[in-house]
């Protein structure tokens, strides 16, 4: 198993750092899956995560100048690592003016992801900072746990309002209640509702638009038969929603969510080089 | 004649005032609010050491910009009847602010260390070191400084025995000797000391654009950090972690109940405050090491010499915690003892005016004698 990658471009480094910062806000520990072309940050829907799951995918070519990966075996040319993204975030934090950043899989006292930052210095030789981040190597027999989640059979799919606005609304609502009702219809309308004994607050968003989904066999989506006014709803933990919204450092190119009534909300945030999927289960 | 009032501030602040002469006192804060109040001492007092909560004392001098604009002189005196340390700020427009700080008597403490004895020395602009430690987490307690004769200087975060090595990120920064103004290294060695205190000193040094000297030896022996400026000289002595595996441990017969974390034993039993909050007090330690003739056994205050103009001068005594000497008693809660005092080079500068760029805030209350 071997992994070496290098970032040379300042903009790529910056972008990569922001992705890592977003991941770090969403998960305390997660799985990093490395393939020849892509990096994946995966959080599975275990009870420990509160049922939340995440799938974030990056194309390595968009960030790394050099990328060499040799997986566990020829026919299983991938590496799965368990990692604390906060460590990676911290290592990259002070590297923003680096000449190069190298990330490699090493075996120090334990398997580590070593981030070696070459910084400019006044002297002839550069300053090197190395961060050894302990990781866990996930054995191949467990790889099945980390498959890409399929898009659920949703009732409504809708584009999200401007995330900044949504975030400030949800932030205020968080002070009043732990659960938020998210409902939307095929008419581009979405409501965020909280209800307590004393007060209920609803924020209405209109004109959001519904993304066109085409199912694999090309047939019309079943949601086309649905009454466009009818709301699909799910009550979710407001803190999980806020975690997702607050973690976004850059406005995504596309942001949408798929609601399976009373079951789960599936968020999809697409940037140019990164796609993030986040699942929040509905509360009982 | 100069009588000395040593004001020992809690939380490792030491301030010493010599009353009856040309002395001023300087208090240094660790954080960004390092500043130099300039003061004038007057009146005679006996040799005493009192302990004042540093937060109270620093609170008097909190807002530097406004102090600079309004304070004309500062008078610090002791009011024994009321058990108060009185700090009077004489400001413009006839305003006088008087602060009464309560104090506690304590023993006179002294530092016993000699940087000439240290085998390794590094000198660098504070900026270089600030840039070095920025890579370490803010909450990191201790850092290990390593040097090799080949000219490599490294900083590494220290993992104490509580942290699991398989779960903690290890950060190491290597600097080449080119980045330093001076590197004298006898042999490869490393010392581990408190990063927080070091950072405090660095932020002070950086704000004043000073060069920092680091003198150290082997693990367990104190590391001495000095800054100098025409007007003042700063010494910070930090205890370093002793290496339990090292053979040089021979002299460190201090309590080794927890050798790995180098807990420091407290003062001799007849000390007034062994029972008190250890963090608040500096503790004098008997040391068996021969520190050389540089340090007299009594408080070292240079000869009082009259200074024309407003030379600022201060003396302080401080305590050190050295590992040498087996001392009974309960181990302190904190791992490291550090002391920080400022003293101004006096003898060499006696009779010279301060540089024209110095902002002279206070005048000597006594004329030439």
From TrEMBL, chain A:
GO terms under cellular component: checkpoint clamp complex; cytosol; nucleolus; site of double-strand break
Segments of this protein annotated with the region Disordered: 210-230
Cell location: Cytoplasm, Cytosol; Nucleus
Principal location: cytoplasm
Gene Ontology biological process terms, A to Z: double-strand break repair via homologous recombination; meiotic DNA integrity checkpoint signaling; mitotic DNA replication checkpoint signaling; mitotic intra-S DNA damage checkpoint signaling; nucleotide-excision repair; response to radiation; telomere maintenance
Alphabetical UniProt keywords: Cytoplasm, DNA damage, Nucleus
Family: Belongs to the HUS1 family.
Complexes and interactors: Component of the toroidal 9-1-1 (RAD9-RAD1-HUS1) complex, composed of RAD9A, RAD1 and HUS1. The 9-1-1 complex associates with LIG1, POLB, FEN1, RAD17, HDAC1, RPA1 and RPA2. The 9-1-1 complex associates with the RAD17-RFC complex. HUS1 interacts with POLB, HDAC1, FEN1, PCNA and RAD9B. HUS1 does not interact with RAD17. Interacts with DNAJC7.
Function: Component of the 9-1-1 cell-cycle checkpoint response complex that plays a major role in DNA repair. The 9-1-1 complex is recruited to DNA lesion upon damage by the RAD17-replication factor C (RFC) clamp loader complex. Acts then as a sliding clamp platform on DNA for several proteins involved in long-patch base excision repair (LP-BER).
Name of the protein in its database record: Checkpoint protein
UniProtKB/TrEMBL annotation, chain B:
GO CC entries: checkpoint clamp complex
Annotated EC: 3.1.11.2
Keyword tRNA processing attributed: no
Recorded superkingdom: Eukaryota
Keywords of the record: DNA damage, Exonuclease, Hydrolase, Nuclease, Nucleus, Phosphoprotein
Pfam family, one: Rad9
Location of the protein in the cell: Nucleus
GO biological process: cellular response to ionizing radiation; DNA repair; DNA replication checkpoint signaling; mitotic intra-S DNA damage checkpoint signaling
Alphabetized GO MF terms: double-stranded DNA 3'-5' DNA exonuclease activity
Function, in words: Component of the 9-1-1 cell-cycle checkpoint response complex that plays a major role in DNA repair. The 9-1-1 complex is recruited to DNA lesion upon damage by the RAD17-replication factor C (RFC) clamp loader complex. Acts then as a sliding clamp platform on DNA for several proteins involved in long-patch base excision repair (LP-BER).
Family, per entry: Belongs to the rad9 family.
PANTHER family xrefs: CELL CYCLE CHECKPOINT CONTROL PROTEIN RAD9A, DNA REPAIR PROTEIN RAD9
Listed name of the protein: Cell cycle checkpoint control protein RAD9A
């Amino acid at each position: 198993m071997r992994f070496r990658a290098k970032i040379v471009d300042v903009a790529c480094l910056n972008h990569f750092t922001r992705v890592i910062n977003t991941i770090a806000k969403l998960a305390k520990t997660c799985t990093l899956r490395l393939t020849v072309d892509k990096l994946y940050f995966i959080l599975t829907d275990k009870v420990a995560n509160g049922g939340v799951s995440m799938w974030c995918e990056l194309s390595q070519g968009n960030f790394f100048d050099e990328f060499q990966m040799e997986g566990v075996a020829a026919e299983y040319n991938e590496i799965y690592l368990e990692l604390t993204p906060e460590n990676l975030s911290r290592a990259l934090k002070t590297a923003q003016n680096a000449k190069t950043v190298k990330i490699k899989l090493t075996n120090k006292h334990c398997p580590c992801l070593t981030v070696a930052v070459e910084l400019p210095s006044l002297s002839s030789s550069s300053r090197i900072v190395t961060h050894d981040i302990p990781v866990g190597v996930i054995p191949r027999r467990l790889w099945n746990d980390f498959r890409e989640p399929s898009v659920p059979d949703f009732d409504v799919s809708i584009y999200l309002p401007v995330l900044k606005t949504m975030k400030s609304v949800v932030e205020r609502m968080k002070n009043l209640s732990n659960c938020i009702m998210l409902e939307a219809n095929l008419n581009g309308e979405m409501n965020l509702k909280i209800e307590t004994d004393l007060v209920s607050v609803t924020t209405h968003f209109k004109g959001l638009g519904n993304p066109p989904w085409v199912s694999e066999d090309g047939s019309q989506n079943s949601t086309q038969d649905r009454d466009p006014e009818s709301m699909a709803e799910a009550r979710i933990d407001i803190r999980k929603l806020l975690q997702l919204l607050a973690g976004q450092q850059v406005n995504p190119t596309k942001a949408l969510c798929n609601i399976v009534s009373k079951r789960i909300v599936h968020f999809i945030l697409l940037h140019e080089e990164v796609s993030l999927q986040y699942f929040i289960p509905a509360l009982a | 004649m100069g009588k000395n009032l040593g004001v020992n501030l809690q939380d490792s602040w030491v301030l010493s005032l010599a009353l009856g002469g040309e002395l001023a006192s300087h208090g240094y804060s660790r954080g960004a609010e390092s500043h130099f109040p300039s003061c004038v001492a007057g009146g005679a007092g006996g040799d005493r050491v009192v302990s004042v909560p540093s937060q109270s004392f620093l609170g008097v001098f909190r807002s530097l910009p406004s102090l600079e604009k309004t304070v004309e002189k500062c008078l610090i005196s002791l009011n024994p009847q009321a058990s108060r340390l009185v700090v009077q700020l004489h400001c413009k427009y006839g305003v006088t602010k008087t602060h009464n700080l309560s104090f506690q008597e304590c023993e006179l403490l002294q530092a016993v260390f000699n940087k000439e004895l240290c085998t390794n020395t590094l000198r660098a602009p504070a900026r270089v070191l600030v840039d070095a430690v920025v890579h370490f987490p803010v909450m990191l307690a201790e850092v290990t400084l390593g040097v090799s004769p080949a000219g490599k200087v490294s900083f590494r975060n220290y993992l104490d025995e509580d942290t699991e090595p398989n779960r903690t990120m290890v950060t190491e920064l290597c600097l080449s000797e080119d980045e330093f103004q001076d590197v004298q290294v006898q042999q490869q060695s490393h010392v581990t000391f408190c990063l927080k205190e070091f950072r405090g000193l660095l932020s002070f040094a950086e704000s004043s654009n000073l060069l920092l000297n680091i003198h150290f030896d082997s693990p367990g022996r104190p590391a001495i950090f000095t800054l100098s400026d025409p007007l003042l000289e700063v010494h910070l002595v930090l205890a370093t972690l002793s290496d339990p595996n090292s053979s040089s441990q021979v002299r460190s017969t201090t309590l080794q109940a927890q050798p790995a974390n180098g807990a420091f034993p407290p003062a001799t039993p007849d000390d007034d405050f062994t029972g008190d909050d250890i963090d608040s007090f500096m503790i004098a330690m008997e040391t068996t090491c021969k520190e050389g003739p540089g340090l007299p056994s009594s408080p070292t205050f240079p000869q009082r010499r009259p200074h024309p103009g407003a030379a600022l001068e201060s003396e302080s005594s401080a305590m050190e915690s050295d590992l040498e000497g087996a001392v009974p008693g309960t181990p302190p809660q904190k791992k490291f003892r550090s002391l920080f005092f400022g003293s101004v080079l006096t003898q060499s500068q006696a009779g010279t005016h301060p540089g024209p760029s110095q902002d002279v805030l206070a005048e000597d209350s006594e004329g030439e004698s």
